[in-house]
Amino acid sequence: MTLSALRDDALRVRGAHTEVRLSLPWIRSLPLASLVDPVVEIDGRSHEPTISLAGRQVIAADLASEDGWWYLQDRVVLQIPDAATPGIHDVSVSFRLEIPYLPGGPDAPLRLPFAFTRALRTTTPAGGVSLDVGEAA
Question: pTM value?
Answer without folding.
Answer: 0.89
